């Protein structure tokens, strides 16, 4: 069994780490702008201003 060198692990982390983070960012932006979440986000933004 061949051991992985630092360069192999570093190259893997750079390429697939970037893919993972871009995918995660796209999911977060998609969640934030999803039309069904508007009511929930509006309620959260106004919750501090409302009196109980």
Written description of the protein model:
- With 52 residues, this protein is an all-alpha fold.
- Helix content is 69%, strand content 0%.
- The protein has two helices and no strands.
- It has helices at 6-32, 38-46.
- It is rod-shaped and about 65 Å long.
Keywords:
single chain; 52 residues; mainly alpha; 2 helices; rod-shaped
Structural class: mainly alpha
Cα-atom radius of gyration: 21 Å
Silhouette: rod-shaped
Strand/helix succession: HH
How would you summarize the topology of this molecule?
Layout: H1 6-32, H2 38-46
Task: Quickly describe the structure.
The chain is built from 2 helices and no strands. It has 52 residues and is mainly alpha-helical.
């Amino acid at each position: 069994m061949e051991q992985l060198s630092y360069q192999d692990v570093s190259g893997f982390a750079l390429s697939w780490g970037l893919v993972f983070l871009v995918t995660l960012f796209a999911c977060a932006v998609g969640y934030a702008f999803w039309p069904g979440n508007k009511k929930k986000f509006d309620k959260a933004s106004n919750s501090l201003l409302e009196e109980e």
